[in-house]
Specification:
Keywords: Cell wall biogenesis/degradation, Coiled coil, Glycosyltransferase, Membrane, Transferase, Transmembrane, Transmembrane helix. By secondary structure, the chain is an alpha/beta fold. It contains 26 helices and 13 strands.
Length: about 725
């Protein structure tokens, strides 16, 4: 009997044709540009200009190479839809384990963490088939107290959500806005809502009191593993069957400075082991601690792919987009990650699937175990891969059989809790292959990118699903400092992969990954290299302009058309992509600015950090993104005003280069007016003008603004002092 369809796939043929046509024409123009620079321009330049010529050529080559890699994303864009009404009955749905990670109760406030926990406990899925695990990498007593209080409140919150089919299942979000039942709900609903809101306020007070009693700082450097099953399924009886709520498990792995903990990947591998002997669900939902569930049906949507017999055998994970509740209309820092989740990931879905994005994905558990595991495998071989726990090894082959009581509540014997603590110890992974070729991968702080890459290399596929209603909502960075610090960490990790034996264009092709998919992975890994053309093109043409040396063809030359075409082609194609995917002209302009700012700062420092780690001058580190909201800075973000309250290491390079381009532009205008050299220097004058136009907020922050978010006078003065020696030294090299 043929099963009913669970999902549909639509290929955007017109978009693919437009993109491929543009790629072909643009590629020809790039070849002409490289021919001009290598053959024609090289024969007419002075010897003293040769070093600068080489850097300009390197810049143009890197930009061309990265553009070519990036073009693979839109080769075959697709979108998907689901038919959850065709899913099997609830008693046949597979179980799900939910992994939520937190590490610092100061940077990641506990109230936000427990709201994420409560939201996934209330998803529209059989509660006896959901187990929620919270990994607390800080070992905070306060976080444990907060999660206990969350369980207590969850016994009334979850039944309320299911009784009234609440869509906004995160308590904080639910009570902050008017929900759909406010208008259509009856008297019973309104009374219950008022009662639940009162309980929620009491819950927040208890959390606040716990914080005052135990504090948030943990002074211990070394602490042992702690596993606590917060509650049992079936607690509460007010709403009968709907009163059943998922099991909640608190996991704090052992930390010891003398043992590597591998950051988030290490925490996830501990959850993988601990959950293996407690629930061992075949599917895993991974969420960041600030990424709450916004649609109770997301699990059923994911199962439409995982249970589809046509794609399920090779499907590793279903990736939902990261969406954010605090994005402003202007989104001046491009914090929505629109390019990834609206443009690139749907394009990769048309190949063999999108990259793993760290959160908001439903993964098949067995894909993380590497090679297929069967009962005839030697015990020594299994222990070499997965460690010495016989209990855990048994779960790799057969599902754990828990004794059921009359109420359907699973019982967890004390010996299993002790075994779980062994699995969470810092020495368990010794002499095993955790983090190597399977599980959540080590070697890089971007464990999501690396793990997804290895899975795709092994032949697994993935799916990207972007529903109309956001399945999950998180908090994005809303100030420049956090945006650039986060970007620095990501880019350092990406370059670690690029510089390793796992370089996508080498390892991926050797693993027989499709070329276009390799190009997509390679583009993201090589993206930090944008820092080189960004720095070179913000300095060298300007220095040459001040010394009267043209580096671009004359306006009257036919080669000028090639450069003009490439410039306009790049801008217009990107504008088309933005408009076509629901963006605006302002979105397009903001993203150009953020790309320039990140290229000078986050990409540069990420590249520097990766190089230092490559040569052993620096150890790997993981800087948490601050989730604490600063009301004043948030207000500036909502108003579309840049906040330059950031590290001087981030701001000084930006201001210095803007000042350099201001000097260059004014000098170039003078040459055009007084020397009549319009045709010679137009390209360089226009480049400076374009840089200044895109980065106008920096000029505004230096000159026009006097608020707290403006650029400090000291930074401006320091940047001026740095720009003149830069111009002087650059001019000397041309002599």
């Amino acid at each position: 009997m043929e099963t009913l369809p669970l999902q549909k796939c639509t290929v955007h043929t017109l978009s693919a044709i437009i993109h491929r046509t543009h790629t072909f024409i643009h590629s020809i123009a790039i070849l002409f540009m490289l021919y001009y620079r290598l053959i024609i321009n090289l024969n007419i330049i002075q010897i003293s200009f040769l070093p600068y010529w080489f850097l300009i050529f390197v810049s143009e080559f890197i930009l061309s190479f990265l553009w070519l890699l990036n073009s693979a994303h839109l080769w075959r864009p697709i979108t998907r839809s689901v038919l959850p009404e065709n899913l099997p009955p609830e008693n046949e749905l597979p179980a799900i384990d939910v992994f939520i990670c937190t590490a610092d109760p100061i940077k990641e406030p506990a109230l936000g963490v427990v709201n994420t926990v409560l939201s996934v406990m209330a998803i529209d899925y059989p509660p006896e088939k959901v187990t929620v695990y919270l990994s607390d990498d800080g070992g905070s007593v306060f976080t444990l107290c907060a999660i206990r209080e969350a369980w207590r409140f969850g016994k009334v919150w979850v039944p309320f959500c299911k009784e009234f089919s609440v869509k906004r299942i995160c308590p904080e979000a639910f009570f902050q806005t008017v929900d759909e039942h406010e208008i259509s709900g009856g008297k019973e609903y309104l009374l219950e809502r008022e009662k639940i809101q009162k309980e929620y306020e009491e819950f927040k007070e208890r959390v606040k009191k716990a914080q005052e009693n135990v504090g948030t700082k943990d002074t211990m450097v070394h602490f042992g593993p702690n596993i606590e099953i917060i509650g049992q399924r079936g607690s509460g009886a007010k709403y009968n069957d709907k009163a059943k709520i998922p099991t909640l498990v608190y996991v704090s792995r052992e930390k010891n400075p003398s043992h590597p903990h591998h950051f988030k990947a290490g925490a996830l591998n501990v959850l993988l082991r601990v959950s293996g002997i407690i629930s061992n669900s075949p599917y895993i939902l991974m969420l960041d601690c600030d990424m709450h569930s916004n649609d109770p049906s997301s699990a059923r949507q994911a199962m439409c792919f995982h249970l589809d017999p046509k794609i399920s055998p090779s499907l590793a994970f279903v990736q939902f987009p990261q969406r954010f509740h605090n994005i402003s209309k202007n989104d001046i820092y491009a914090s929505a990650l629109r390019v990834c989740f609206v443009v690139n990931w749907p394009g990769m879905d048309g190949l063999i699937g999108p990259m793993l994005s760290g959160t908001c994905f439903y993964m098949k558990r067995k894909v993380l175990y590497g090679a297929p595991i069967h009962k005839d495998m030697e015990l020594i071989e299994l222990k070499k891969c997965f460690g010495s726990s016989n209990e855990f090894l048994n779960t790799l082959i057969t599902s754990t059989n828990h004794k059921q009581n009359d109420n359907g509540i699973k019982e967890f014997p004390d010996n299993k809790i002790q075994e779980a603590k062994i699995l969470a110890s810092c020495t368990y992974e010794r002499d095993s292959q955790w983090g190597e070729q399977a599980r959540f991968m080590y070697h890089s702080v971007v464990e999501d990118y690396f793990t997804g890459f290895i899975l795709h290399c092994k032949g697994w596929r993935s799916v990207f699903y972007n529903p109309t209603r956001p399945a999950f909502l998180g908090s994005a960075t809303t100030n420049l400092n956090d945006t650039l610090v986060q970007g620095t960490r990501w880019n350092s990790g990406l370059l670690e992969v690029l510089f390793s034996r796992f370089c996508p264009l080498i390892y991926g092709l050797k693993s027989r990954m499709p070329l276009l998919e390799c190009m997509c992975y390679a583009y993201l890994a090589a993206q930090p290299l944008y820092c080189f053309p960004a720095w070179f093109l913000a300095i060298i043409p300007q220095i040459c302009l001040l010394n009267g040396i043209p580096i671009y063809p004359k306006v009257s030359s036919p080669w000028f058309f090639v450069y003009s075409f490439l410039f306009l082609s790049t801008l217009s194609k990107y504008l088309w992509d933005v408009i076509h995917t629901g963006g605006t002209m302002r979105t397009w302009w903001n993203e150009w600015r953020v790309w320039m700012i990140k290229s000078i700062t986050a990409y540069f420092y990420g590249t520097l950090d990766a190089i230092l780690k490559l040569f052993g001058f620096r150890k790997a580190s993981f800087l948490l993104t601050n989730k604490v909201v600063d009301d004043e800075r948030l207000k500036r973000y909502q108003m579309g005003i840049y906040d330059f309250q950031a590290s001087k290491m981030l701001i000084v390079p930006l201001v210095t280069l803007v000042i350099l381009n201001m000097i260059s532009f004014i000098w170039g205008i003078g040459k055009v007016i007084f020397e009549g050299r319009f045709s010679d220097v137009f390209g360089q004058v226009f480049l400076s003008f374009f840089i200044l136009m895109v980065n106008y907020p920096i000029i505004e922050g230096m000159i026009l603004r006097k608020d707290k978010g403006s650029i400090p006078l000291f930074v401006t003065f320091l940047s001026i002092l740095l720009s003149f020696p830069l111009l002087f030294l650059g001019s000397i090299l041309l002599m």
